[in-house]
Specification:
The complex is a heterotrimer. By secondary structure, chain A is mostly helical. Chain A contains 14 helices and no strands. The radius of gyration of chain A is 25 Å and the shape is flat. Chain B has two domains: 49 residues, no CATH class; 237 residues, Orthogonal Bundle (MetI-like fold), CATH 1.10.3720. Chain B has 13 helices and two strands. In chain B, helix 4 packs parallel to helix 8, helix 5 runs antiparallel to helix 8 and helix 12 packs antiparallel against helix 13. The longest helix of chain B has 40 residues. By secondary structure, chain C is α+β, with helices and mostly antiparallel strands. Chain C has 19 helices and 15 strands. In chain C, the strands form four sheets. In chain C, strands 1, 2, 3, 6, 11, 12, 13, 14 and 15 form a nine-stranded mixed β-sheet that branches. Chain C has a two-stranded antiparallel sheet with strand order 4-5. In chain C, a hairpin with a 2-residue loop joins strand 9 and strand 10. The radius of gyration of chain C is 25 Å and the shape is globular. Classes of the chains: A mainly alpha, B mainly alpha, C alpha+beta. At the A-B interface, helix 1, helix 4, helix 5, helix 6 and helix 11 of A face helix 2, helix 4, helix 5, helix 6 and helix 8 of B.
């Protein structure tokens, strides 16, 4: 006992030390995480003469919205924005529906070839998009969909990782007893899915939702090759307009970056609790 | 539909309906599977077929080449370099992004006021589009006006040509990935019943001991999961490197040449469609093997535990 | 169960329909160019020989380019063209270059590219070899072959197997940019004439702070970066010394042209600049930006920098000079051409518009407002030259001042890219300073790789 008390005192001392160290590390890390964003914002508000000055200033001496004006003058960025929102929303909705359905089936039904199919899906998640982009393009061309919205969003209608993620969630958080109870009550499989499974997956849906949104929002190469008019361009493509062949217009490109980060940021802030909960619910038991 | 209309007519129909019922789950999966086949498996298989051809831009299936592309792969210096780089890259990316994330999660796991804010801040880079990440990091790494060299100048360090070195891209990617892993770990730690920690404290265990003997073992399944996902992602890293190293002041190619980068260059710059396809197949096989091994490990552990 | 299945199916259907509807709500996209049988398209182009007489039927032309800074020019000429031909609508789309190549590799083989594409011959070579780009129709060919209109170099550059492809629009040509104030400050009155002078001047022009950190490069060299640019800039130094990247060995075969003294000297030039004479450093900003910001006294670059300086550093006191000579005297010329693709529904109109762009007044506009040099050699540019004298060094001609450029062989891009990677590594390597053996080894290894690539493409023959 005495021994214990002694070591406890020592522990308390080291604990205070550790605690301050903990806060120091966390704060430092947070600064590293946030600094690039502040720097992006700060650059976007500076006149071009001030951007390239030494020493760098975090708070602009003169705040100007010129760079943002340039962004909107260069091209119809409001249109790009709308296209991105539309594309990301459709893709997110589709990924959520397909992933929960497939996740449910993979998680709760036994059928021949289940393991194989699942491995195939997981495996395709690992094939980089760039390698099968051209065959996909040819398919879209054969459907006469080049330069249309459906083709723009097509590769983002499903997400291999999403199916994997939802399967894990279904296994972890949908008890068989609940499904059986539903079946005894005569509910159809579809109703079971809609009224039992989906509500239980709420958190996971939030988590997957933001990933899907973010992934589609960040799409670059596919929108570039599948569109042939600026009417269908997305924010990320538009940003490329400030990256010339040889030089970069730092002011406008940072302003454009701020504009492209903002929507994802808002979605994130709105869904943050869901994401944490979603990941918590998965259990991640493998 | 035929099944139900038949079921009205008699026992044969009923039997058919039962069969349909058994197959139901597959049926329901059918539309998704079809979309899946069309949008993923189809193009990927097409690509695999190309790998057996000595293809040109005009006609991807110009001359059947058998295994020539695969044989050529192993005599290709750049392929070997990329394979080595990708593996090194995947290992270091996984090690750094997992260990730093774990450390942060442990530090954040206690209850304190700013916890939520920290969570949000660390997660911010995860959701930021890569083009924006590349723009801002390249700007921070700028040799003459960059923020990083400015900070280093406080300590009397001479300007460093960050963009010339491939590690530059690496750290920006670590920066982007940490938040995701951290959040998963965090949730895992919070799932561990409080009583475990309390009991350990009463027994006089220090923070280090608590981490070693309680947090880490209980976190193991999550650790495995995060490592799997990180490794897979690392093998797939392309856009990040592509965007980070572009431009006349960007990094040299070989040093950051990952497999996907090499595939990209062979396919799009040099138009060796078949050759690039064979590289893609190799990549696929490697990652598939990795996944199977990791699955095996998890399953075994599940069985043991 | 049947119902479930139906519901699931209809959910998917709904989703697809929803996306269609959404797409309809989005501002109407341009219709995808209709496909036509390749054979028909291939025969169509040469047939368009009859004098272009665009009718009144509504025509939509699309043009894709890889140089975003060219967009104002295209808009300018498109406006002028539609004034004359109100039935023609022109859509212009430019892309940052590296991504543009990807787009072309997806769209050209599948005949979904724009009607007119702007690209260099060497980047387009792979498509031409694959017979995916139609040759020039007779009337355009006649326009191009008009005596004095395009230099012999441009004529031969755009010829493949005896056929003419692409109409040269502008050229990338190099000259030496030098900062007058810095020269004056260093007691120098004129730009260097020889490569030796260029290095000597650079040493005098470089500046370092008390700690020995270079704060101004005497000459901003391309030391890093992705893609073939590094090798191209090295070529600027290599060529005057008597070397080249690949040498014509006759019979359409080639060999590495730098595994010689010129190659070693050219690499030494760079290594010395960074590690011996230290007038350039990796830890400095580079390229046009550096020159504009006063971080470099000299720079070898194309004429677009003039336009860029006017925009970003209008007060910079600078001039341009011909590329300094060594054993020979010359500069690189990279032509950028217009091609009408197989996807074009109205190739006659497309070619008519392309030729319209080449009008002298538009070429003057291009030089003055964009800064790229008109490819045509039969145009009076004196008005613009009087206004912006810095263009003079770019358009000057002298029988001894030679032009060299990318040979039109498909693997050249791969050769340059792989050579560039080796050069970047070499520039970083301190151990190469005052190390002739190391330099010789580096050059030999690179040349072997170049020859290897040529061999694989069936284009190799031993030189001499």
């Amino acid at each position: 006992m005495a021994n214990h008390r002694l070591s406890r005192e020592r522990l308390l001392r080291t604990d205070t030390l550790l605690r301050s160290l903990q806060h120091l590390i966390l704060a430092l890390g947070a600064v590293i995480m946030v600094l690039p964003f502040i720097w992006m914002l700060s650059t976007s508000l500076k006149p071009s003469t001030e951007i390239l000055s030494w020493p760098p200033q975090f708070i602009p001496k003169t705040i100007t919205l010129d760079n943002y004006v340039t962004v909107f003058k260069t091209a119809p960025f409001h249109l790009f924005f709308l296209n991105s929102v539309l594309m990301a929303s459709v893709s997110t909705a589709s990924i959520l529906v397909t992933s929960t359905l497939a996740g449910f089936v993979f998680g709760k039904y036994n059928f021949p070839g289940r393991g194989f199919l699942f491995i195939v899906i997981l495996a395709t998640a690992m094939v980089p998009f760039e390698t099968y982009m051209i065959p996909l393009y040819i398919q879209m061309k054969n459907l006469r969909l080049v330069n249309t919205f459906p083709a723009l969003v097509a590769p983002y209608l499903i997400m291999s990782y999403g199916i994997f993620f939802m399967r894990q969630n279904v296994i972890a958080s949908v008890p068989d007893e609940l499904l059986d109870a539903g079946r005894i009550d005569g509910a159809s499989e579809w109703r079971i899915y809609a009224q039992i499974v989906v509500p239980l997956l709420k958190g996971a849906i939030g988590a997957l939702g933001i990933f899907a949104f973010m992934q589609t929002w960040a799409a670059f190469i596919w929108p570039l090759i599948i569109t042939s008019s600026r009417q269908l361009w997305t924010m990320e493509l538009g940003l490329g307009m400030f990256q010339y062949r040889f030089t970069v217009d730092l002011g406008p490109i940072n302003a454009g970056s701020v504009l492209s980060v903002l929507p994802v940021l808002i979605v994130f802030v709105l869904l943050r609790r869901n994401i944490v909960k979603g990941i918590a619910l998965t259990g991640m038991k493998g | 539909m035929t099944a139900t209309s038949l079921s009205r007519t008699g026992s044969l129909g009923e039997r058919l309906a039962t069969i349909v019922a058994r197959l139901f789950h597959i049926n329901r999966k059918l539309p998704i599977l079809l979309i899946y086949l069309y949008l993923r498996v189809g193009p990927i298989l097409t690509n695999f077929v190309y790998s057996f051809y000595n293809s040109s831009v005009a006609n991807p299936r110009a001359n059947f080449a058998g295994l020539d592309n695969y044989i050529a792969l192993f005599g290709d210096r750049l392929f070997i370099i990329s394979l080595r780089n990708t593996t090194l890259f995947a290992i270091s990316l996984t090690v750094f992004s997992v260990s730093i994330a774990l450390l942060l999660a442990v530090l954040l796991s206690g209850k304190f006021r700013l916890g939520g804010a920290y969570e949000a801040i660390y997660f911010l880079p995860v959701i930021t589009p890569m083009v924006a990440v590349a723009v801002v990091w390249k700007w921070i790494y700028d040799p003459t006006y960059g923020l990083l060299n400015f900070f280093l100048s406080w300590f009397g360090i001479k300007p460093v040509a960050w963009l010339v070195y491939p590690d530059t891209a690496f750290w920006a990617i670590v920066w982007k990935l940490i938040g995701y892993n951290m959040l998963i770990f965090l949730v895992g730690i919070r799932d561990i019943p409080e009583t475990y920690f309390e009991a350990a404290k009463i027994d006089g265990a220090g923070s280090g001991q608590i981490f070693r003997f309680i947090t880490l073992p209980l976190l193991r399944p999550i650790l495995v999961f995060v490592t799997v996902i990180s490794t897979i992602n690392a093998y797939n890293v392309f856009t990040q490197i592509f965007v980070m190293t572009s431009g006349p002041q960007g990094a040299p190619g070989n040093a950051v040449r990952t497999l996907v980068f090499d595939i990209y260059e062979n396919a799009f710059r040099y138009f060796k469609t078949g050759y690039a396809a064979s590289e893609a197949v190799m990549l696929f096989l490697i990652v598939l093997a990795l996944t199977l091994v990791q699955f095996g490990v998890t399953r075994q552990r599940d069985a043991n535990g | 169960m049947k119902r479930v299945e139906r519901v699931a199916l209809s959910a998917i259907a709904l989703l697809l329909v929803a996306s269609m509807i959404l797409s309809a709500c989005a501002p109407a996209p341009a219709p995808a160019p209709a496909q036509q049988p390749a054979a028909a398209a291939a025969t169509k182009a040469p047939e368009a020989a009859k004098p272009a007489a665009p009718s009144d039927k509504p025509v939509t032309l699309s043009l894709w380019g890889g140089f975003p800074e060219m967009e104002p020019f295209y808009k300018h000429v498109a406006e002028a063209y539609t004034k004359e031909h109100p039935n023609v609508k022109i859509e212009i789309l430019t892309h940052p270059l590296r991504e543009f190549e990807q787009k072309l590799s997806a769209t050209i083989p599948s005949d979904t590219a724009a009607d007119i594409i702007e690209i260099s011959m060497y980047a387009n070579q792979k498509f031409i070899e694959a017979d995916l780009i139609p040759e020039l129709p007779a009337n355009v060919k006649a326009f191009m072959e008009e005596k004095g209109r395009y230099s012999d170099f441009l004529q031969s550059n755009n010829t493949y197997k005896g056929k003419k492809y692409g109409l040269p629009l502008f050229v990338g040509r190099t000259a030496l940019f030098w900062n007058k104030d810095m020269f004056k400050e260093a007691g120098l009155s004129a730009p260097p004439k020889t490569q030796q002078e260029m290095a000597d001047f650079a040493k005098k022009l470089a500046k370092a702070d008390a700690a020995g950190t270079l704060t101004r490069a005497g000459h901003s060299l391309r030391l890093s970066g992705q893609g073939s640019g590094v090798a191209e800039k090295w070529w600027f130094i290599l060529w005057p010394l008597g070397g080249t990247i690949v040498k014509d060995a006759g019979n359409g075969k080639y060999c590495a042209g730098y595994n010689n003294d010129a190659g070693k000297q050219a690499l030494k030039f760079y290594v010395d600049a960074v590690h011996v004479d230290k007038y350039d450093s990796h830890a400095l900003k580079h390229d046009a930006e550096a020159f504009e910001l006063g971080l470099a006294a000299m720079l070898l670059r194309e004429s677009w920098v003039i336009g860029d300086i006017a925009k970003k550093a209008p007060n910079l006191n600078y001039d341009t000079a011909p590329v300094p000579s060594a054993a020979q005297w010359g500069r690189i010329t990279n032509p950028v051409n217009l091609y009408v693709t197989r996807a074009a529904k109205n190739p006659e109109v497309a070619w008519d518009f392309a030729q319209f762009m080449m009008k002298p007044e538009h070429m003057n506009w291009l030089l003055e407002n964009v800064g790229w040099l008109p490819a045509r050699g039969d145009i009076d540019l004196s008005a613009v030259l009087a206004k912006i004298p810095q263009f003079k060094a770019f358009v000057m001609s002298d029988p001894n001042y030679k032009e060299f450029g990318y040979p039109v062989i498909a693997p050249f891009d791969e050769i340059m890219t792989k050579l560039a990677e080796r050069l970047v590594t070499a520039y970083l390597d301190k151990s190469l300073a005052n190390n002739p053996d190391g330099i010789a080894k580096t050059i030999e290894a690179a040349a072997n790789e170049t020859n290897e690539i040529l061999k694989k493409a069936g284009l190799y023959a031993e030189c001499k």
